[in-house]
UniProtKB/TrEMBL annotation:
The keyword Lyase applies. Its EC number is 4.1.2.-. Pfam families: TAL_FSA. Coiled coil: none annotated. One of its GO terms (molecular function) is lyase activity. GO terms for biological process: carbohydrate metabolic process. It comes from Fervidibacillus albus. This is Fructose-6-phosphate aldolase. It comes from the Bacteria. Keywords: Lyase, Schiff base. It is an enzyme of class 4 (lyase).
Length: 223
């Protein structure tokens, strides 16, 4: 998934990278300035189409207000929108309530095995463990994701792990190796993964070898 609220990024990279949705949170939206949030989200929906998911995070922490915001989000953007809720006491209560009412839920701000287990048992559709942030506070992110994947399988739940919070593509790949079903990534990291010097060196060598035989500027279209 693209972890961004930037319209230009989504428009630019949707035709480059395979992706299944867009995730946002208040910190991501802050980068876009004080936009009309509903129009902004609707524009994202128009760009990505109905086959891909949009994940919108609540902006409050009290159970009653989380539930109200969930209703407001789906009223504005449709019932297929995933409601992102941090896994706290109030958040878990809201997740359980909203799942009983058939809302789509992404449980977020997960740092521990326990948080993930609670969200899985509450039937969250997605859980979002924070890979880099866990590593920054000496929590073994690999162990957490591996544990959560095993728990989902053992309990025969439909919950999917969408790993989040990355500083490089190595962490993204490690999350997948540990059992994450998906990852939400800043598109700039995806771009960086294609800009390795070794890739360009190989392409340059191909070009030079071709030109040494057929001449500069000649392509297969000319033959």
């Amino acid at each position: 998934m693209f972890d961004t609220g930037n319209i230009q990024q989504i428009e630019m990279y949707q035709n480059v990278f395979p992706f299944i949705g867009v995730t946002t949170n208040p910190s991501i939206l802050k980068r876009e300035g004080k936009v009309d949030v509903w129009e902004h989200f609707r524009k994202i929906q128009q760009i990505i189409g109905p086959e891909k998911s949009l994940h919108v995070q609540v902006t409050t922490s009290r159970f009653e207000d989380i539930v109200k915001e969930a209703y407001k989000i789906t009223h504005q953007l449709g019932k297929e929108t995933y409601i992102k809720i941090p896994v706290t006491m109030e958040g878990l209560r809201a997740i359980k309530q909203l799942k009983q009412e058939n809302f789509r839920i992404t449980a977020t701000a997960i740092y521990t095995m326990a948080q993930g287990d609670y969200a899985i048992m509450a039937n969250a559709d997605y859980i979002a463990p924070y890979f880099n942030r866990m590593e920054n506070i000496n929590i073994d992110a690999k162990a957490v994701i591996s544990h959560l994947g095993a728990r989902i399988n053992e309990c025969k739940k439909q919950t999917k792990i969408v790993a989040a919070s990355f500083k490089n593509m190595g962490q993204v790949m490690t999350a997948f190796e540990c059992g994450a079903h998906s990852a939400t990534v800043d598109p700039s990291l995806l771009v960086d993964s294609l800009n390795m010097p070794s890739i360009h060196e190989a392409i340059d060598r191909f070009q030079k070898d071709w030109e040494s035989v057929y001449g500069k500027g000649v392509t297969l279209l000319d033959l």
